[in-house]
Write a structure and sequence with these properties.
The protein is about 50% helix and about 10% strand. It has 23 helices and 12 strands. The protein has a 6-stranded parallel beta sheet with strand order 1-10-7-4-2-3, with helices on both faces. The chain has a 4-stranded mixed beta sheet with strand order 8-5-6-9. Helix 9 packs parallel to helix 10 and helix 16 packs across helix 19. The longest helix has 25 residues. The protein is elongated, with a radius of gyration of 27 Å. The model has no long low-confidence stretch (mean pLDDT about 90). GO terms for molecular function: 4 iron, 4 sulfur cluster binding; metal ion binding. Keywords: 4Fe-4S, Electron transport, Iron, Iron-sulfur, Metal-binding, Repeat, Transport. This is Lactate utilization protein. One of its GO terms (biological process) is lactate metabolic process.
Length: about 500
């Protein structure tokens, strides 16, 4: 039974546990560093072309979102005319049920899958498993995660938190229970591990009657679905089975074939640090004697119209799932993807999950705060999603949702007390004098000093403890600015 993200703790709790795992941090730092360097080299190679290309990619995706209903109807019409069956799914349950119904209609107890974020989002594997249908992941990293009973931790490289020694142990321990066993003399050389995975998967490809995929893009004009991948496993899933079911988020629509061009130039450079994608598969319905002879396309909402209604947050639907924002994020690099408690981790996950699911759940509400707001994610995003802007916007929504709480949070209580003091000059004067007195006392007692010789407080008790564990808090100054001003006659201590 595979694990799920259901019941994960809020980000601060999960992050604290991840930070204590030194092996995890080493794996993440190495992997993200390599990907980051490859991407940077290829972006630099583009020179002045890169920014106009980002603008073009953002414009294509925004144009699709601005008239989404029209483009979706065009896509449905073109897919249907090409022999595909189109299903509309409001949520995860409806989408998963469509796939299960197709599997049952063909009396199969297993399906092979192309790597797909959206099928992970809807919990497809778990739904099929609960009804006696095994869903086999064929992407190498997804296979590692599935065999280990683990959870994905990266959009592009789901097993980024594992090193090759760990992968070898997983293959030796788990492959036999899922099919062809790993060779007894398996080493941790990447080529050897890949060969073992290839042999394990080949028998599944050859016997599978039903394949399941997502899609990176859906071209409305031609009714074409596009999958980009690096290993070739997707090509096997898309061509060998008799039946193909593709689950596609409605935001994946691109209006015309020509508008695919900038996206296909942006995606490989931003995701894998390559000039072009190794395997790009395009299919448009059914063609007799070529590929699956029965094609189903499930167009999924699952919160996307909710996100589209958010004037600031809707830009998150431009995401092309490249993972560039994860690879440059200092928070993700230190905590990994599991801490985000979702299929979509990192900066994009911190905004996409609240937009799709709404507010009210403590885990989801914690995600907009899983950021230092350094802005590296926006600089890396190939379609110019202003993630910091959306994070601040979502933080505002979280705060606003708690304004009517009968018992305010400590932060809210502190802000109310501050507002009370600052709204009246006499009250502010009293606070300043009390702070000055405490500053003089603490200045005599403390041994901790900041640069410049100013006294610093130690760890505060109660609600202030969390804030001061990672920050130096200066002691209040012995004299307020207003007291100094009055004593020196506006800074003229000689009275002139």
């Amino acid at each position: 039974m595979s694990r799920t993200f259901v019941g994960m703790p809020p980000f601060p709790t999960a992050a604290r546990e991840a930070l204590a795992d030194t092996q995890l941090r080493h794996n993440l730092a190495h992997a993200t560093g390599v990907i980051r360097a490859k991407r940077a080299a290829l972006v630099e190679e583009q020179g002045e072309v890169w920014e106009p290309l980002r603008l073009a990619g953002a414009a294509v995706k925004q144009r699709a979102l601005d008239d989404l209903a029209t483009h979706l109807l065009t896509l449905e019409e073109q897919l249907t005319s090409a022999g595909a069956t189109v299903h509309w799914a409001r949520d995860a349950a409806e989408a998963s049920q469509v796939v299960l119904d197709v599997a049952r209609a063909h009396d199969v107890d297993e399906v092979v899958k192309v790597k797909s974020m959206v099928t992970a989002e809807i919990g497809l594997n778990e739904h099929l498993e609960a009804h006696g249908v095994a869903a086999w992941e064929t992407d190498l990293a997804e296979l590692i995660v599935q065999l280990a009973g683990d959870l994905p931790s990266h959009i592009l490289v789901p097993a980024i938190h594992r090193n090759r020694a760990e992968v070898r142990e997983i293959f030796l321990r788990e492959m036999a229970s899922a099919g062809r066993p790993a060779p007894a003399d398996l080493t941790d050389e990447p080529a050897v591990l890949a060969a073992a995975a290839r042999e394990h998967l080949r028998e599944k490809f050859l016997r599978a009657k039903v394949g399941v995929s997502g899609a990176n893009f859906a071209i409305a004009e031609t009714g074409s679905l596009v999958v980009v991948e690096s290993e070739g496993n997707g090509r096997m899933c898309l061509t060998l089975p008799e039946v193909l079911v593709s689950v596609v988020g409605i935001e994946k629509v691109v209006p015309t074939w020509a508008e695919l061009d900038p996206l296909m130039r942006l995606l490989p450079r931003s995701s894998t640090g390559e000039r072009m994608n190794p395997y790009t598969s395009v299919w448009s319905g059914v063609r007799e004697g070529d590929g699956p002879q029965e094609v189903h396309v499930v167009l999924l909402d699952n919160g996307r119209t909710r996100a589209l209604a958010d004037q600031v947050g809707r830009q998150a639907l431009r995401c092309i799932r490249c993972s560039a924002c994860l690879n440059v994020c200092p928070v993700y690099e230190r905590t990994g993807g599991h801490a985000y408690g979702s299929v979509y981790p990192g900066p994009i996950g911190a905004i996409l999950n609240p937009l799709l699911h709404g507010q009210g759940d403590p885990q989801t509400d914690s995600l907009p705060y899983a950021s230092s707001l350094c802005g590296a994610c926006f600089e890396a995003c190939p379609v110019r999603i202003d993630i910091p802007e959306v994070l601040v916007h979502l933080r505002t929504q979280v705060v606003d949702a708690h304004r009517s709480d009968r018992v305010p949070k400590a932060e809210a209580a502190a802000m109310r007390a501050t507002a009370w003091a600052f709204s009246d000059a006499s009250r502010l004067g009293l606070v300043e004098r009390a702070a000055g007195l405490s500053g003089r006392v603490l200045g005599r007692l403390t041994r901790s000093t900041l640069p410049g010789g100013r006294a610093a407080l130690g760890r505060l008790p109660g609600p202030g403890a969390a804030w001061t564990t990672a920050r130096d808090l200066p002691a209040p100054p012995p004299e307020s600015f207003r007291a100094w001003w009055a004593r020196t006659d506006g800074g003229r201590e000689d009275g002139s």
